[in-house]
Amino acid sequence: MINLKSRLILTYALFVSAALMVVTISINQCTGTLFESLVRETIKERGQEIVRSVADIYNPRINGFDVITMEAIGMHFVHEGYIITVESPEGETLWDARSMDMQHCVAVLNDITSRMEERHQIQGSLQYTAYPLLYQNTTIGTLTIESYGPFFYSEGESRFLSGVNRLLFIAGLVFTVLSVFISTFLAAAIAKPILKASEAAHCIAGGNRNIRVFDGYKTKELQELACSINTLAKELAEGERRQKQLTSDIAHELRTPLTCLQGNVEAMIDGIWEPTTERLMSCHEEITRLSRLVQDINLLTNLEWEHLTLHKTSFDLAKLLQLVGEQFQSPAYEKGLAIILRLTPSLIVADYDRLKQVFINLLANGIKYTDAGAVTITILPIPLGWEVGIADTGAGISERDLPHIFERFYRSDKSRNRGTGGAGIGLTIAQAIVTAHGGTISVTSEPGSGSVFRVALAAEG
Ligand code: ADP
After folding, report:
1. Which pLDDT does position 306 carry in this prediction?
2. Residue 443 Cα to ligand 1 middle (Å)
3. Bridge partners (DSSP) listed for residue 441
4. What is the maximum span of the chain, computed from C-alpha positions, in angstroms?
5. Distance CA 230, CA 201 (A)
6. Among 1.10.287.130, 3.40.80.10, 3.90.226.10, 3.40.50.720, what is the CATH number of 209-308?
7. Which end of the chain is more exposed for a tag (fewer CB within 10 A), N or C?
């Protein structure tokens, strides 16, 4: 399988080379065509110039051309690739370059032919163009120019064109080599972080949750990839920590009551204690408490691992709170407490049973930690929802404990809670359920005066 770096280098280099080739060929074609039309124009002008030069040396007095000047002009143009013949109006040859120096004429034409055919791959042939020679509007003869056609490059023009082509070829080559270097650099810049992320993912899969990758890349996607890997490692580490913590918390919570139970039962088996109904009932109570604790732990585990599926329905929050309040009338009465309900109809879309659990936990705490006075339940409208307040006139919560009471298994007063049977899970469960609904739960408390728990929920769920 080809690796990412090689693939990137290959793709980039191929693309750049192809693009350069297209650009080079286009420039070459364009330059060639433009230069050709320029040369054709020059040849045409050169023809006119030759005609003018020859006509200029006409001498009316001798009704002919000055032969010496004619020879100078003619041989000059032969040198440039134009073989000229001058004829009288009657068709008599007055001057002919070939007759003057056949060898030179053939050498010049051969030179041009090989230059055009070999250097420029242009096949042509000798062409003859006849021009009338005029003196004061009277025909004084005919000038025939023999040259390589349809056009030809002079030595200078040919060298210029070859030079341009060579330059384009070198530029193409240099840019191709450069593109390979740049693509290697770019590919490494992209592939390296991906490789590092992949290595880190392997390490994480292998159990190393402490590994972190550099996440300060300037490329958005690479930075997101690095951040995702780091978050994954952190989340897994946090998950493992939570799992370990839960296991040790549960073990800790179960150890004391189980030891106590074991001691009691052993004492009865050994005959140290009489297995009276009261003692058996006490053991039964402890077993009931333990099984409730296990149920709570199970519920909490589900909530914390987000296995909680909410079955939302539309219902009146006031009616739910009324029902919960009524359930607690009897325990409240036993403690001499009043339950005051200040409720207004308040429709909500939420999981009825889960919210009932929240208010049961909060009201149970209110009654549990209040010795005199009342627990008041209120509903207040807030933007887009409702806020349920559960206020008691109990012992309150100290400033030291307040930030921790929603933590799992946290109790502000352990010995007292042992007496009340609380395991420190009730508020954790309540918070998990409210959070799953997208709501918030908060508390304010004044030690000695009481506490107020507030649950804010969106009406539309
Ligand atoms: P528990 O089952 O022990 O009551 P919770 O999670 O419900 O566990 O509460 C955690 C702790 O917060 C309790 O141990 C208690 O100290 C404190 N707490 C909760 N509600 C009240 C309240 N209404 N008044 C005073 N203290 C409270």
Report:
1. 61
2. 11
3. 455
4. 166
5. 9
6. 1.10.287.130
7. N
Residue with CA closest to ligand 1 atom 14 = 411
**Tokens of residue 304, six digits:** 């914390």
Name the residue with the closest Cα to ligand 1, atom 26. Answer: 397
Write the pLDDT tens digit of every residue in 150-191: 999 999 999 998 898 899 889 888 988 888 888 888 888 888
Model confidence at 246: pLDDT above 80? no
| Nearest residue by C-alpha to atom 21 in ligand 1 | 365
Pocket, ligand 1, Cβ cutoff 6 A: 361, 365-366, 369, 392, 394-395, 397, 405, 410-413, 417, 422-428, 451
For the segment 359-383, the average pLDDT, to the nearest whole number, is 95
User: How far is Cα 375 from Cα 367, in angstroms, rounded to an integer?
Assistant: 7
Report the predicted TM-score, pTM, of the whole model to 2 decimal places. Answer: 0.53
pLDDT value for 363? 97
